[in-house]
């Protein structure tokens, strides 16, 4: 039997979700393999949109299944459950026309070897379409230990964090200053019928609330604009740099922040370091696309003996590996995969990185510590411990544009001003005399 149009996309989406939800696989990794099987870019975009929407809204859809199914799905029904999430996401979060979503998803049940359950899939999708979804708590998507931590640490803000993390982010663009002004680029978008807005606190950013494919963005391939969340763009504002400064980007891959710094000042002498060779190659690609120059090095930044030639840096950016709890809306599988022991090893790694790269900052120079985490262990507590054990580290204040006051730094929570959750802390090295 020949599967109807769109069936293959639904089958692949169900397989991706099954691997991510039931077998601990990463969404990014599974998507790479699945996307390679779809030649049409529209199908690829649909596959991604289904997987992200289903994972973001997983708690709501699970709650509906619990209510609607007389007998809960068994352990061996991971693919069926995933297919139902695929169907729900299309009807609900993505608002696709029901006829297309329904028939392709029901057909996908057959392709997945479950012809005897196609009727049930059909009935559940029709019910969802008719009744909508029951009220449910977005916090249910978070594992108990993380939920407890967020409630404890963020109290009155916790609900807003859970809500914001279940919704798609707007598309934030960073306009390449070295190629033209933001106003000029906004006009080019307008000519292409793409509506964008500015944020008064972000000088290079344009926000697009109805996301479009990057291929539709004028001059994207030439590096006239890049995709980067507003919070990530603020890193360049928080790091004070003189012209031609010697800069270390200690955890540089995939290179968004290095690119931004170099677009602002191509005269910087920037060393892009990352422990992961393949990821560092992406920094090279990113910088090539925007036409910027840098030095590259694969190394563990904390182990300065292996890579540092002793010439101090005016400024160090430490955009540290973290729990990614501030960007759950972009990486919804974080909620399925983070374990308490991951957090302890991340906190230890961040401390090692801080101690290591601090040695490379020149007297009077600065270090900006940033994470896309909202957990205090990785952010304000990490910084308090560092400042307490580091005699020459002097915290410098960042203003309210960077979010809530959080110890020696500032914390933006997910969704605030439409941006990702992010932490920033600026430290200056006291002159040693
Ligand atoms: C949050 S990402 C950095 C994002 C990057 N700054 C950007 O704007 O595109 C963290 C990076 O740290 C790298 N990393 C992890 N441990 C490291 C280490 N010990 N030394 C250097 N890089 C490390 C990871 O490979 C990852 O690319």
Automatic annotation (TrEMBL):
Enzyme Commission number: 2.1.1.176
Location(s) in or outside the cell: Cytoplasm
Entry keyword Nucleotidyltransferase: no
Domain SAM-dependent MTase RsmB/NOP-type: 161-430
Positions annotated as active site in the UniProt record: 372
EC top class, as a word: transferase
GO biological process terms held by the UniProt record: methylation
Principal place of residence: cytoplasm
Keyword terms: Cytoplasm, Methyltransferase, RNA-binding, rRNA processing, S-adenosyl-L-methionine, Transferase
Role, per record: Specifically methylates the cytosine at position 967 (m5C967) of 16S rRNA.
Similarity comment: family membership: Belongs to the class I-like SAM-binding methyltransferase superfamily. RsmB/NOP family.
Record's protein name: 16S rRNA (cytosine(967)-C(5))-methyltransferase
Source species taxonomy: Bacteria, Pseudomonadati, Pseudomonadota, Gammaproteobacteria, Lysobacterales
């Amino acid at each position: 039997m020949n599967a109807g149009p769109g069936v293959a996309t639904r089958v692949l989406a169900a397989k991706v979700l099954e691997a991510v939800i039931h077998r601990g696989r990463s969404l990014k990794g599974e998507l790479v393999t699945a996307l390679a099987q779809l030649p049409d870019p529209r199908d690829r975009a649909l596959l991604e949109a289904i997987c992200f929407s289903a994972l973001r809204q997983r708690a709501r859809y699970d709650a509906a299944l619990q209510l609607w199914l007389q007998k809960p799905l068994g352990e061996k029904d991971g693919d069926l459950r995933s297919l139902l999430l695929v169907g729900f996401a299309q009807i609900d979060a993505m608002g696709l026309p029901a006829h297309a979503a329904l028939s392709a998803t029901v057909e996908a049940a057959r392709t997945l070897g479950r012809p005897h359950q196609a009727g049930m899939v059909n009935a559940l999708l029709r019910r969802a379409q008719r009744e909508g979804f029951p009220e449910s708590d977005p916090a249910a998507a978070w594992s108990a230990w993380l939920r407890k931590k967020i409630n404890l640490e963020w109290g009155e803000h916790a609900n807003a964090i859970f809500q914001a993390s279940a919704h798609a982010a707007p598309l934030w663009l960073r306009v390449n200053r070295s190629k033209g002004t933001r106003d000029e680029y906004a006009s080019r978008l307008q000519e292409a019928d793409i509506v964008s807005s500015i944020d008064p606190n972000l000088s290079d950013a344009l926000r697009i609330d109805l996301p479009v494919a990057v291929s539709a963005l004028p001059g994207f391939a030439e590096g006239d604009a890049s995709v980067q969340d507003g919070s990530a763009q603020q890193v360049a504002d928080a790091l004070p740099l003189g012209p031609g400064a010697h800069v270390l980007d200690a955890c540089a891959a995939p290179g968004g922040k290095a690119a931004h710094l170099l677009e602002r000042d191509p005269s910087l002498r920037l060393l892009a370091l990352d422990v992961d060779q393949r990821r560092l190659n992406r920094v090279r690609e990113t910088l090539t696309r925007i036409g910027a120059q840098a030095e590259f090095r694969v190394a563990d930044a904390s182990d300065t003996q292996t890579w540092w030639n002793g010439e101090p840096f005016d400024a160090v950016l430490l955009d540290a590996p973290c729990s990614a709890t501030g960007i759950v809306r972009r990486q919804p599988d974080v909620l399925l995969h983070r374990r308490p022991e991951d957090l302890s090893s991340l906190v230890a790694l961040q401390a090692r990185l801080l101690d290591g790269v601090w040695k490379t900052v020149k007297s009077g120079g600065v270090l900006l510590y940033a994470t896309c985490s909202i957990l205090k262990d990785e952010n304000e507590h990490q910084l308090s411990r560092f400042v307490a054990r580091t005699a020459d580290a002097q915290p410098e204040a960042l203003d309210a544009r960077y979010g809530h006051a959080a110890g020696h730094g500032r914390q933006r929570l997910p969704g605030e001003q439409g941006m990702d959750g992010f932490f920033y802390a600026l430290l200056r090295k006291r002159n040693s005399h």
